[in-house]
Task: structure prediction
Amino acid sequence: MKPGYVRRFSPVERLLHWVNAIGFFFLLGTGLILYLPRLSMLVSRRQLIQSLHFWAGVGWLGVLAAVVALGGRRLLATARELDAFDRDDLRWLRGGKAPQGRFNAGQKINAVLTAAFTILFGVSGLLLWFGEQNTRYRFASTVILHDGLMYVSLALLVGHLYLALIHPATRHALRGMTLGNVDAEWAARHHAKWKPE
Result:
C-alpha cells in the first residue's frame, strides 16, 4: 500500500459492489428495452430480451449470494457497521457536522436500501416471470412494485454516481472501491470515528 493511504475496502467488499453494479446495469438496460415501447420496437426481439433479463436476474442473485457466502466474517462485520446508527448519524443526516465511521449515514441508508431492493427485485421478478407462465401467479401489484423499484433505484443511482464521480468532496471515495485504499488525510476528514486497521 502506498504511504499515506489506508485500506478502506477488502477485496470481497469490492467484489460484492462491482458484481452488484454490473448486474444492475445489465438488468437496467434489458429492463428499459422491455419497459419503453420505442426501445422495444427498435430491438424487436422481446422474447429474447425477456429471457435475457430474467436469467441475468437469476444469475445476478446467485453470484451475489455466492460472494456473500465467500465473504463470510468480513461481510458480516461490514453488515454490523452498516446497521449501527447513532446520534452522530442522525445529526449528519440533518445536515449538521458530526463525525462518521467508515460509512457515513447516507452510505448506510444506501446500503440498506440496495439490499432490500435486491430482494424485492428478485421476488417481484420471479412473480412476473411465473405470471407469464401461469396466470395463478399474476398479480397487478407485482408490476407496480417492480416498476416502482426501478424508478427509485434510478434516482439512487444518479445520486450515487454524482457523489462518486463528480462531487469534489466525495469523489476520492471511488478510489476505495476500485483500489481498496484512500488517502489517510481524506479519511480522517470525512470519517473521523473510523480507526483503520
The two ends are 13 Å apart (CA to CA).
